Every structure is written in structure tokens, then in C-alpha cells.
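Input/output pair, single chain:
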Amino acid sequence: MLIEAKKLIGLPVFTQSGQKLGEVDDLEIEIDGQSIMNYQVGGSGVIKGLLGSKLIVHRSQILSITEDKVVVEDNVADKKEAIAEDKEEKSSSRVSEGVVTSSDNN
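Output:
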């Protein structure tokens, strides 16, 4: 089955256990092999506010793609939580030191 990129962008992304991770924002294509290597998943709603950055999902972590959704391995959610925790720790340490940078506003 083929799916157009414009239909893939915006598809909701779920783990196999049903946790919503966000939506497909972009694709990274390996030019020589003309293959999708990574999917960039952006948060939606509250998740977007917490994470503020994209989650990169390697094609090997994709379990299925339909016209309705993308399903990824459960361990992708663990990676997303680790990124959010790391971002929160960095933000807290900047505030406690009284240092504010432009990256704090992202």
C-alpha cells in the first residue's frame, strides 16, 4: 500500500499500548536509498506545552501505519518521558541559578 506524504503528516501517533504521543510533523529521508529513516513526532495539546520539541522515531520503531494512525513500540513513550524530564531539570536549574536564556522561552 502507498500513502502520500501529505496524508502521513498530521496522523496521530500512538504506542502499541494506546498512549498518544502526538502527530507526525515531518519526515527525514535518506537520499541515497530514497527511504524514510525517521519520523518527527510533535506533541499536541498539553504534551506540546510540556515537551516543546519533537520526538524522533526511527523507522524500525514503527509497528504499523494506516490511513488513521501510526503505531510505534511502547519504548518510544519511555524516551519521550526521559526527554521531558531532562528538559524540566535543565529549566529548573536555570531558574534556581537565576539565569534565563532565550532557550527557556521555547
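Residues 14 and 20 are 4 Å apart (CA to CA). Residues 5-95 form a domain with the SH3 type barrels. fold (CATH 2.30.30.240).
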